[in-house]
Amino acid sequence: MSVVRCITKLPVCRIEGTVVHGFKRGSTLLDCPTANICTDHIQDAIKGFKKGVYYGWASLHGTVYKMVANIGVNPSFGNEHISVEVHLLHEFSQDFYDENLKVLILGSIRTESKFSSLDELKTAIHEDCGIAEKLLDDQEYSSYKSDSFFMG
Ligand code: ADP
Ligand code: RBF
Ligand code: MG
What we know:
The chain is of the alpha+beta class. Helix content is 21%, strand content 37%.
């Protein structure tokens, strides 16, 4: 399938939650681990979200990293429930399950799509990461790295 990207800026959205376990497909199948955020406390809010791929910043252990996030049902795999998954654009030497993650979403890259092969999904994710990496260097977005949400 061809990917249509329409990069839009959203009103900023801030989500905070614990990193929970998922199906482990991010690290085993896609070379892209995603920290899945517990959504029990934000069920209503995420239902109002357009399913798609987003970019912004995320704070773990007091350090703020660039991130891409997928909010949706992973149609390529047919999940039953909506998940909020965050890939931090940084290499970690350890997992961080059960830790608190703060996520500040600045904009949308594309809608969530159903890919017919793993390779196509991996390519799309790789491109999303490159787009987020570049966009977040813009002054308009980089200023949010020191947002008060990340303080304290
Ligand atoms: P799960 O299905 O349990 O979410 P994944 O295969 O998606 O498993 O791997 C996610 C886990 O990998 C995260 O919860 C986190 O502990 C770890 N991890 C390591 N590096 C990263 C990273 N750069 N971004 C997100 N999570 C990472
Ligand atoms: N899953 C999909 O089914 N369709 C997508 O378009 C899609 N885009 C994603 C983009 C990014 C940047 C990331 C990190 C994940 C994306 N996913 C998508 C979710 C992916 O299927 C999921 O992370 C793995 O299945 C592991 O849970
Ligand atoms: Mg995951």
